[in-house]
């Protein structure tokens, strides 16, 4: 997994690109990103020509958000490049955390 951040000069926000590489997506037909930034609703990631899945969101600076990826229907994953990991409030798993 990969995360890239591009802070905007014109407003207090950051464009964050989330990527799930093709080799980690394996045979998943779809990959979604869920997190606090969208009230844990599915954000469908777009499959690229090289097989990677990606999604770019504009998020406010000076904030942090928990998130996870769902590959297919039930394969939940964290991002090893996340800024931190925190206990999930709804399961025994951990959630990825991004700080902006």
From TrEMBL:
Residues 91-100 have a biased composition (Polar residues). Residues 78-100 are annotated as: Disordered. CDD domains: E_set_Isoamylase_like_N. Residues 23-73 form the Glycoside hydrolase family 13 N-terminal domain. Coiled coil: none annotated. InterPro entries: Glyco_hydro_13_N (IPR004193), Ig-like_fold (IPR013783), Ig_E-set (IPR014756). This is Isoamylase early set domain-containing protein. The lineage of its organism: Bacteria, Pseudomonadati, Pseudomonadota, Gammaproteobacteria, Chromatiales.
